[in-house]
Amino acid sequence: MYPNKSVRRTSKSPYFPGLDDQAGPVLLEEPSHLVDSTLGTQPLSSPSRSSPHSQGSEGGERFSRKVFVGGLPPDIDEDEITVSFRRFGPLVVDWPHKAESKSYFPPKGYAFLLFQDENSVQSLIDACITDEDKLYLCVSSPTIKDKPVQIRPWRLSDADFVLDASMPLDPRKTVFVGGVPRPLKAVELAMIMDRLYGGVCYAGIDTDPELKYPKGAGRVAFSNQQSYIAAISARFVQLQHGDIDKRVEVKPYVLDDQMCDECQGQRCGGKFAPFFCANVTCLQYYCEHCWATIHSRPGREFHKPLVKEGADRPRAVPFRWC
Q1: In whole angstroms, what is the distance from residue 115 CA to residue 211 CA?
Q2: Residues 212 and 159 sit within 8 Å (Cβ to Cβ)
Q3: How far apart are CA 224 and CA 212, in angstroms?
């Protein structure tokens, strides 16, 4: 359900931090084909920040228990990665398509550390060295000793940013952005979209329910119809920031609890409308009957409906903490 529009979050700081903070080298970025680009995967307000495994850190910050580590030695295997990071707490080492590939070595030189407890992430951060706002830790493999690898934690507060707290969040002026690079913070997405289209009042990064780690998608709410239409009419946007230069998709944010804008549920037994028309001549929700009626008119017969996809289905990872 869409949150109460009167509830608004403010970011921790009104200032826009350096764009190079979390960009990371391009070769450390997860492949774009792994991005979850489903429509409307989360409500505009972020889910609860709590987790059965999470504890607040001393500074009050909260981190995802999933941490990206890049630039690994090519001959380091899963067991050796586990040994390298086990001193911070129980963890699991994972990487995309690990189960299918049956490989013992991360194929792209990066992996994810899934810690059992959030305070392990803070301990890992404390042990890192900092260079140009990036975190590094030295690990060793059978042939390479003390190789610096990049550690990229995700701070939960970076998943939401309110640019204009005077404006209520309106789902009818909100876009879904697919293929968002995972290092990108909500504040950075807000600033980029505001520079391109203006009128941004909120941006959010979609995170998975369990680990609260970015899924590769986001949402941007606009304060006016003109900016909203400009964004969805563009269909794609080039995210240029730091080392990132990526073309991503922009679509209307589709909700699953809207009545048909034509009949208000009278022709569909009060059921929620299954279709949304993203064409700028419509921008409405329709039941099946009203969609057929409206789109039989000349000029509208080629409009294609957007359908809200199923709820989040987090991947079950069978593992034991090491």
Answers
A1: 9
A2: yes
A3: 30
Say whether pTM exceeds 0.90: no
Euclidean distance between CA atoms 162 and 28, whole angstroms: 29
Q: For the residues of 61-105, what is the DSSP string, one character each?
A: --B-SEEEEES--TT--HHHHHHHHGGGS-EEEE-TTHHHHT-SS
8-state DSSP, 155: B
Query: Which among 161, 67, 81, 159 is positioned nearest to 122, based on CA atoms?
Result: 67
Count of C-beta atoms within a 10 Å radius of residue 301: 8
Q: pLDDT tens for residues 165-200?
A: 888 889 899 999 999 998 999 999 999 999 999 999
* Residue located via tokens 């949150």: 3
Residue 33 phi/psi, 5° resolution?
-75, -5
Going by C-beta distance under 8 Å and a sequence separation of 6 or more, which residues neighbour residue 203? 160, 161, 163, 186, 187, 189, 190, 193, 218, 219, 220, 221
d(C-alpha 124, C-alpha 135), whole Å:
10
Beta bridge partners of 161: 203
Structure tokens at 32: 């774009």
Residue 43 in this model has a pLDDT that exceeds 70: no
